[in-house]
Specification:
Layout (H helix, E strand, L loop, with lengths): L6 E7 L2 E2 L3 E11 L5 E8 L14 E8 L2 E15 L9 E7 L9 E9 L1 H11 L7 E4 L7 E10 H11 L3 E5 L6 E5 L6 E2 L5 E3 L9 E8 L5 E6 L9 E6 L7 E5 L6 H17 L2 E7 L8 E6 L10 E11 L12 E10 L19 E5 L19 E5 L12 E4 L6 E2 L2 E2 L9 E6 L7 E7 L16 E4 L5 E4 L4
Parallel strand pairs: 9-12, 13-20, 14-20, 16-18
Antiparallel strand pairs: 1-2, 1-5, 3-4, 3-21, 4-7, 5-6, 6-7, 8-10, 11-12, 15-19, 16-17, 19-22, 20-21, 21-22, 23-24, 23-28, 24-25, 26-27, 28-29, 30-31
Helix pairs in contact: 1-2
Length: 485
């Protein structure tokens, strides 16, 4: 009969190991492109409470041991905490949740405009402004990411913003804990997923013995045969921005996505491929059970001794759910401790792309902005248009620090009359307030739909001359049409 190692699990923080705190139950979940969480039920020795730094937001580490040898660490911060407020003569009991430091990004909700930035630059900027240092994250990216003219964060948390950007461009994220912290890793290729430390290989127990991997099922599903991306670019109106990518193992049908803001046929083709890969990645899923604590999402492991799987083909772990129970305050508590996990994995030969879980905000109404003033806030200057007749606009909802200037982006203006070599356009001067609408409700695609009067730029027609129809030019010339009563 096999002798199983004695399992122990404990917590530590900057003040040291929590020697007087014992874990009774543990459950956790790790998923690619999701924040991990571990829920613990703990009890303190009589006469003791949690350490002084055991507060929501405090850094903590969950450690797994076998026979006194460390097998895994999970770094993070304490999230919600619940105390049962037992009498002093009882064991103080608590429910704790461990979350990654990235959870703090859910506490920042804002609007922000990014102009002429690449996606990796935006990810890096957001992480650094949330306190992430160089050792805290890694961008394992090999694809080319062109500069985007305008990317808008709108009424969403910093976490939701970077998640949806990553999902849109086929970038996954997960966490590694080997470097003394919960390192946040972004990757856009299979090489960015590394072998699971300590469980690079894992045996399969076909006889039902509950050790290593002892259960494995293959779940297959239907996926569409093709994915089509369509869009329109006003700069190249004659160019067809339609591209498709076929899935050889598809079961028929297809998906058409319009308005993903691709600007060239090459971008459309690449995005169609990303979307098809995301569908195909989830077509064949391995679901298994194991007793190895080192399995975590975003890592690879090779299954040995399985009668129907090749040992040369590693599996990429997409989702791992952990469960552990520990007895109470008995002298032989460690001998009865138990751990198991359930996992979902795909063949590492299949390109993994995250599903589109995070919705992009829509602006179904309008917003306001201002034509960028001249130096020193000057407004009495010549209208500043580019070669395409567009204006530099500062959008009012853009969040800036005191003293900073809002970002400006070139935006075209809708007109009541336009065509080939004809049309009309009354140029707007710097400082003019404008009304913005958004193509397909996309915050990244604003259009000026009109100019607005305000206290600084009052209407030439008001109560005093309400019967007049008037056009007044910046030079003071007035074109007036009276109304007969």
């Amino acid at each position: 009969m096999a002798v199983h190692p004695i399992l122990n699990c404990f917590l530590e923080s900057k003040l040291g190991r929590w020697d007087h705190v014992q874990i009774h139950q543990l459950s956790g979940r790790e998923t690619i492109s999701e924040l991990f969480s571990f829920d613990l039920e703990v009890a303190c020795d009589i006469g003791h409470e949690l350490p002084e730094d055991a507060l929501p937001g405090g850094e903590v580490c969950l450690i797994f041991e076998h026979d006194g040898l460390e097998v895994r660490r999970v770094h993070g911060i304490l999230g919600p905490m619940r105390s049962r407020l037992e009498p002093p003569e009882e064991h103080a009991t608590y429910k704790l949740r461990i979350l990654p430091r990235a959870f703090r990004m859910t506490l920042v909700e804002t609007q922000e405009v990014f102009v002429d930035r690449s996606i990796p630059d935006i990810l890096r900027d957001k992480l650094e402004r949330n306190g992430f240092e160089q050792v805290d994250f890694e961008l394992r990216l090999v694809e080319e990411y062109p500069v985007r003219e305008l990317v808008v964060q709108y009424r969403e948390s910093d976490l939701a913003f970077i998640r949806r950007l990553a999902e849109h461009y086929g970038i996954s994220f997960f966490f590694e804990h080997e470097d003394g912290c919960d390192k946040l890793v972004f990757t856009d290729h299979q090489g960015g997923f590394r072998p699971a430390e300590g469980v690079e290989e894992i045996g399969f127990r076909a006889r039902g013995e509950k050790s290593d991997v002892y259960s494995l099922e293959l779940c297959s599903d239907l996926v569409p045969t093709t994915y089509i991306v369509q869009d329109y670019n006003y700069r190249t109106p004659q160019v067809d921005l339609t591209a498709h990518h076929d899935i050889d193992s598809g079961s028929g049908g297809g998906v058409v996505e319009y308005g993903a803001h691709v600007k060239t046929p090459e971008e459309a083709k690449h995005l169609a491929q990303l979307r098809a890969q995301a569908r195909q990645a989830m077509q064949r899923i391995y679901e298994g059970r194991s007793t190895r604590e080192g399995l975590s999402a975003g890592r690879k492991t090779t299954l040995l001794d399985h009668p129907r799987l090749s040992s040369a083909e590693p599996l990429l772990l997409v989702d791992v759910q952990h469960e552990a129970t520990f007895p109470g305050f008995s002298e032989q508590k460690n001998k009865d401790a138990s751990y198991r996990n359930t996992f979902r994995a795909i063949s590492s030969s299949i390109v993994y792309r995250p599903p589109l879980r995070t919705p992009k905000p829509r602006i179904d109404g309008t917003a306001t902005g201002i034509i960028q003033p001249g130096p020193g806030g000057a407004t009495e200057v010549t209208p500043q248009l580019d070669a395409e007749g567009r204006y530099l606009v500062q959008i009012h909802f853009d969040t800036v620090l005191p003293g900073e200037q809002r970002a400006s982006h070139r935006i075209r203006m809708a007109q009541p009359f336009a065509g080939t070599n004809y049309g009309m356009h009354f140029p707007l001067r710097p400082g003019t307030e404008v009304l913005l609408a958004f193509t397909n409700g996309d915050p990244d695609r604003p259009i000026i739909v009109g100019a607005l009067f305000n206290a600084t730029t009052p209407s030439p027609v008001a109560s005093a001359n309400a019967t007049k129809h008037q056009i007044k030019s910046p030079s003071g010339a007035i074109f007036e049409f009276g109304v007969r009563s």
